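Slide 14.
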Amino acid sequence: MKFDTPATTNPIDRMKIVGQPVDRIDGPLKTTGRAPYAYERHDVAAGQAYGHVLGAGIAKGRVLAMHIDAARALPGVLAIVTTLDMPRLAKGKMNTAFLFGGADIQHYHQAIAVVVAERFEQARDAAALIRVEYDRQAGRFDLAAEGAKAELVSGESSDAPAEHRVGDFEGTFATAEVTLDETYTTPDESHAMMEPHATIAAWEGGKLTIWTSTQMVAWWRRDLAITLGLKPEDVRVDSPFIGGGFGGKLFLRADAVLAALGARAAGRPVKLALARPLVANNTTHRPATIQRIRIGAGRDGRITAIAHDSLSGDLPEGQPETAVAQTKLLYAGANRLMTMRLAELDLPEGNSMRAPGEAPGLMALEIAMDEMAERLGIDPVEFRIINDTQVDPADHDRPFSQRQLIRCLREGSERFGWSQRNPTPGQWREGRWLRGMGMAVGFRNNLVVTSGARVRLSGDGMVTVETDMTDIGTGSYTIIAQTAAEMMGVELGHVRVRLGDSDFPVSAGSGGQFGGNSSTAGVYAACVKLREAVAQRLGFNAADAVFEDGEVRAGNRRVRLAEAASAQELVAEDRIEFGDLTKRFQQSTFAGHFVEVAVDAFTGETRLRRMLAVCAAGRILNPKSARSQVIGAMTMGAGAALMEELAVDTRLGFFVNHDLAGYEVPVHADIPRQEVVFLDEADPLSSPMKAKGIAELGICGVGAAIANAIHNATGVRVRDYPITLDKLLEGLPEVA
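Slide 15: predicted structure.
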């Protein structure tokens, strides 16, 4: 199905099942421990042995020799595969770092060996006995130090200009009545998902099956085939449940490659999971940024010039953190300049983490907007409303498909009691606590991706959906079931959903906030075909047939849906392909974030008191799971604001706090009451579902709202995340 014209009235609009806050259909499996996560799939292959991955002890250089005799002599050891056993393996299309093979070391904890043994403890102990000789070389580990050598990059297609320039920024900024020129920093961050990267691999002849934890089944199948020199059809990937990803499982990682190599060497199925330090140093992370923002405005508050420059780092051939993405579109202003510079670093691969680009970009931009409002003497909410735009600021002939940002801000202000905020910082006291309010805008583009599905109707009236879409805890199983039930006119209990298998049609996968909208649109397309097949078999005109209450009706005639498959199962398959609507219309999601904090005047400890997000994100397919996504993202945003930071050892080139003991994330006691409001919205330009993404919008802007609230409470303006108490102490007001 080609989606190249706006959606009209369709069966989804009935909203009998879609749009309802139904419980997640996979919930009972997860709460009773019956959901089969990758490492726990003991029944998929007999005789599973255990693998343990050894990571490099240097960040840059070469492996000169590996002494494995002592490890091989341990009881239970079945095989040892080292990086010196083979040349560097090919790199998948989505990978920046090489995953295995050869003597060269690109980054700390690069995989250099896998030990396979009968028991996990045997594999782990044997790996500890491997002695490695290195030629350590000087590396580049300090982003600020490498910034002067960083090159301008577009972050888009190879022929895109490195500068996003509209009008005369420099001239207009120089003559603006009120200006701001500040620098903000965000640190390296870890996905820190609960489930580590884990894979079980088994060979049958020349064919490989992996049971793994991935967000993108088709990408992994293709890139694993490339890496191992196989045909894609000789690789099967199965990943029905994922214990968190946040972007860290988008791209093929060493666990899958090493499990496959270990299984081939041992002649047995092999299961392995990356130890937590390797999750931080061997896989990917959100790269640090240094962002300079300049804004010029008239006394009336209208922005006349805005510039955003972002510096980030990555391995050679890597990509920048696209922290200027939202600044291109969020606010009006005739004169604009956005640039990104990329420094080459020898740290582990920087790549996607929940809302790449907008999450760290808004952490900077929305503090800058708050500072600018303060300099202008204008309320921060009103300043943003003054500079709202209904068109792409760089192309006024390209309108937003829908943009209810002002309504998000107005409703959020009213609900939160924003009018009670004292604009003068440090004036609201409650004993030893300094209280304050802050706000920020949330913005995330609505991406759409081709997505396919297969739908079956059996003689008992059951509808089965098959697609390689994944559920990383987001609720994919449920919204896909809701879509099929609505389209086929059956109860939710009459839909069975099968996900995460590369034998199924290729879907959008989970990432970039595109999964929910795109994958359900693919199911919609397949259901349209199934409806046509049902109508034909039952003698209805498909255009007139109504599918409802387990029946097919037209005029005075009605037939049970199951009768269409009484003699033979009906199967339909299709995919949604998106046309040029995203080029003709800017499609984005918006939020107003409001936060209240209390800061201890003696210690600088910050406590969140309450949080509110008012979101405009198209049709909400399941308000219960969507709210869950947003409050989870708000929690993640709180972590980014107050505590999360991968500490870089700039001498040796690794992340020091590479486990869940040293890398702090929010816990229940850190998070207050969270309120989420969804505006009533359906966007016919987005998809037949009229939905948009929601999973990443919730994190966008939260960090800045907290930073702005802390400033309002204390008068201390912190521009370097995370906002730890040491950055507040010197500036706190006198308490006695």
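Speaker note: The two ends are 70 Å apart (CA to CA).
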